[in-house]
Amino acid sequence: MTKETCVEWTVSGMDCGSCAGKVRTAVERLPGVSRVDVALMAERLSLVLDEGKTTRERVESVVRALGYGIVPKPSSAAAIAGPGAEAQAHGAQASDPGSLPPWHRSGKARLVIGTGLLFLAAFAVSLLAGDGPARWGFIAATVIGVAPIARRALHAATAGMPFTIEMLMSIAAVGALFIGAAQEAALVVFLFAVGEMLEGMAANKARQGIRALARLVPRTALLEVDGKTREVAADILAIGQVVLVRPGDRVPADGTVLRGVSGVDESPVTGESMPRLKQPGDPVFAGSINTEAALHVTVTSAAKDNTIARIIRLVEQAESARAPTERFIDRFSRVYMPAVVGAALLVAVIPPLALGQDWGTWIYRALALLLIGCPCALVISVPASIASALSAGARRGLLMKGGAVIEAAAATTHVAFDKTGTLTEGRPRVTDLVPISGSEAELLALAAAVETGSSHPLAQAILACAQQRDIAGPAATAARAIPGHGAEALVKGEPAWVASPRFAQGRGVLDDKARQAAARLEAEGKTVAAVFRPGRLLGLIALRDEPRADAAEAMRQLGGLGIAAVMLTGDNASTAAAIAGSLGIAHRAELMPEDKVAALRDMAGKGRVMMVGDGINDAPALAAAHVGVAMGAGTDVALETADAAILRNRVTDIAAQIRLARAAMANIRQNVAIALGLKAVFLVTTILGITGLWIAILADTGATVLVTLNALRLLAFDPEAKLRP
């Protein structure tokens, strides 16, 4: 019986999509390996391994043979910071945990320096001793410089990948030597090394957005034990321990305020610019900054599960959810590379054979065509933009789970909003108590008994009102929610309900007087709950949940983007009309969960639909939409259930998220145009003999660097600035 294990490694040296493709293809061919996933920007290789057929060491040796570094991925939270972070886990503060070694210490930089010195030496010989002796210097420079490239090409070929940039480069360099272009061959090898180094520097710059998130969490914490504090590593904090967070300190772990009142700057986590007041019982996030007074915080999450760690995991794992455009380019490149090789062969052979042209001239042009045909720039054009957009969004509390979500969000034409907790604050308060049989105290006591233990916003408002009036409800058992209607429980052995007037009317307890009172309250935009026992209505409770301060502005911004907005709610028609009217949007009321799904499917027939809800009660609707967005300040549900999440609980962030997605797709189109446009131009000029080998390698590496730098512009993109009037 075999035992399969999920294994992860950190792979360094991957600078473009073809690098990730080479690692994936080579590893997939090993026996006992399945479900291989290579994340370029996260530098992650994950797979399921049957170690009875292939060992971990074998996987590592295959990857190293391709020219990449590989180490097992550490399980500690420190690993999230990227290379070099582990050395910081025990409190060392001298260096940046996400920093990279100096550029000149990398293997690619050493290749640049070595090939550059060899080329300069050969060039100096040509000046001092003439072209004859210099030719041998250029040949030596070419052979020494191309040797490591050819070795990687051979390893890739034996792994089933004959058409790689290393193979094309090796053929071009060796071919140039055979036709007497030794000086140009040496220059091409040097330029190739420079291009690879620049690609690596650009790719690492793109990764810095993710590494910067990891640096938000402090390495140490002040642990409180028996009234005394001592400094410990933050990644060893356990749930239930208490830490002291002094003014100016970063919070070392997700937790709940135990003692103290202070303003906390959550902008590093959610992007919210204004500090939020925190008092006992309020949650705080790892990485946020205490601004005013000391706080004593009870840890609620281990380091590997804190909000920052989960955001980083989400951003890294989002690479696996590749955009349809990216999948198409991958399929295209697999056909494109052999086609380029075939075209180069025809260019080398047909003119000399059919037209009697010079063999050397056309072989030279064919070799240049091989270099121009490398699809590195095209393959990286999408993932580089996606990674930059994900990082830019994460810094502003806008999370999207991969390229597929970004592409779908960019195409959004309709946005459907839940009401309670999404368009409104989700913190309603009791405005009216209307007793029908009995007193206000009896009415409120029974309602509080039924709602005890419920987390629903309306239930919390009723319980808060009872607490303010110092009214304690009797003990209740068998409490349960009635989806779309309310709640019920056994109170003193007899059923009791807190439910919508419509549900109460169906139970036959709502008379004309009660119906008129409910209608009057609902006309005022209030939500009405009927409190009753079998055959007896105790009374009505009216509550109101005000729209969020930015909800109307959000609707204006969506309109400016050409997007239609609608509110879908289970609340009564009058309340829904009052809220929707104040926001200037369409609405559909009194919807059960299945009715919301049906409404979304109807809207999907007219365009691309985004659904925005709280991530809990709206789960079916979120799943039914093209893009489901959860509102929630760092909750597990907000981060893990929907396609995307808004951490700041700001409705305007929906428009910002769509704007960011559209900017990402525009950036992708620009990158594809750059990659294909440059290749098309140099393809023609090469065949016509206008440009040669060294221009060809510049066209390839230059295009790769250009698309990567263009993608990096998204890191500075501010979707909110674009939406302000």
Automatic annotation (TrEMBL):
Residues 5-71 form the HMA domain. It is found in: Cell membrane. GO terms for molecular function: ATP binding; ATP hydrolysis activity; cadmium ion transmembrane transporter activity; metal ion binding; P-type zinc transporter activity. The chain crosses the membrane at residues 111-130, 335-356, 362-390, 672-697. Keywords: ATP-binding, Cell membrane, Membrane, Metal-binding, Nucleotide-binding, Phosphoprotein, Translocase, Transmembrane, Transmembrane helix. Gene3D superfamilies: 3.30.70.100, Calcium-transporting ATPase, cytoplasmic domain N, Calcium-transporting ATPase, cytoplasmic transduction domain A, HAD superfamily/HAD-like. Its EC number is 7.2.2.12. It catalyses: Zn(2+)(in) + ATP + H2O = Zn(2+)(out) + ADP + phosphate + H(+). It is an enzyme of class 7 (translocase). It is a multi-pass membrane protein. SUPFAM superfamilies: Calcium ATPase, transduction domain A, Calcium ATPase, transmembrane domain M, HAD-like, HMA, heavy metal-associated domain. It holds the Pfam family HMA. InterPro entries: ATPase_P-typ_cyto_dom_N, ATPase_P-typ_P_site, ATPase_P-typ_TM_dom_sf, ATPase_P-typ_transduc_dom_A_sf, ATPase_P-type_domA, Cation_Transport_ATPase_IB, HAD-like_sf, HAD_sf. Its main location: membrane. GO terms for cellular component: plasma membrane. Belongs to the cation transport ATPase (P-type) (TC 3.A.3) family. Type IB subfamily. This is P-type Zn(2+) transporter.
